[in-house]
Design a protein that fits this description.
- This protein is α/β, with parallel strands linked by helices.
- It has 15 helices and 12 strands.
- The strands form 2 sheets. The protein has a 7-stranded mixed beta sheet with strand order 1-7-6-5-4-2-3, with helices on both faces. The chain has a 5-stranded mixed beta sheet with strand order 8-9-12-11-10.
- It is globular.
- Bound molecules: ligand LCS.
- Ligand LCS binds next to helix 4.
- The site of ligand LCS has 17 residues, from helix 4.
Length: 403
Amino acid sequence: MERNKKRFETEVVHTGYDSSHYQGSLTPPLFQTSTFTFENAAQGEKRFAGQEEGYIYSRLGNPTVKVLEDRIMTLEHGEGALAFGSGMAAVSAVLFHLLKSGDHVVCSRGVYGCTFGLLEMMEKKFSITHEYADMSSEELLRQAITENTACIYVETPINPTMECIDLKMVCQVAMELEIPVVVDNTFSSPYLQNPIKLGADFVLHSATKYICGHGDVVGGLLVGKSAEEMQEIRMTTQKDIGGIMSPFDAWLLIRGIKTLAVRMDRHCDNAEKIASYLKAHSMVKAIHYPGDADHPSFRMAKDQMKRPGGILSFEINGTKEMAQAFMDELNMIKIAVSLGDAETLIQHPSTMTHSVVPPEVRAKMGITDSLLRLSVGLESWEDICEDLEQAFKKVEKRAVQMQ
Ligand code: LCS
């Protein structure tokens, strides 16, 4: 299918919707309906048999949701897309599609806490084993693959350590061994990185984050490079497990995604400034940001991503208590999980998003108790810095008094 005739900034606004089909409505209409009526019994039979195109029931497809699915499919260079009720519903749908008992998953050495939880559950309940692999070299990746490996699952940049994985290298190895690759592209959004173009079979998003951009929807998106396989997922793991997106959430996400390119540029601009500020700060032991020239993934991220993104993590020079006290002293910056919103958000991975990960595994993932993750928002970068600075000063003063 011929695609991408227009540039990203145009596709993100227009693709998947033709107003002439909807009485000229500039905005895609909200089809807030659970079911669709048939003209007669024969039509219902044909639709169920797949002999006639058309909607049946919103768990199997909905016109508002389809606009979003078609848009993300184009933005991620896929041939099929599905929308889910959460990012985790997208993760579980693709893993249940690919895996059966006895299979093995090779996973990047860090993943979002609930993805970790899902892999644990699959191992306990269904004997689907997994290994967190160091994918920093082809040799190490190959060492982790077994004859039962049925999926390579990669987050890049990894939440929250910001390590990046060389997708071209991973996909080349996987293609040679005929193992499907799934990439969680949540941190980059399709504006910064397109895993299918680099050889991945599936790319997914927690649409809750940058795609929404406004902190008012929980949703997930899955894009695949095979239209047939995506249709199979629609009619199996999505239909029968049922983690679909509501039409209203799709409608909000269509609104949010229109501004993705402009928002991402601003997130990236702000993150660059905040990273330089934090790197130079005496209270900061280390920063983890792919745009930092000292970051181990700096060069590779530069090739793979359009820009280094809007998230960074940093380790405060002190204890867990100090990290938490620092968060409590912030005024404008909100303490909250999630990311990619207009508001700058800070969270403490070891007690929040990754608290389900056992401490020894967290240590291997590089998640220390003094690590804080900042989702840099759209505010003035000077105001973000001023808020960080006043909190550092208060915590520093308290530390001196306690000595
Ligand atoms: N993948 C990544 C990389 C994520 O960061 C998250 C959520 C998910 C998948 C799951 O998406 P959801 O079901 O929440 O839409 N990450 C969160 C985080 O870092 N803070 O709060 C949620």
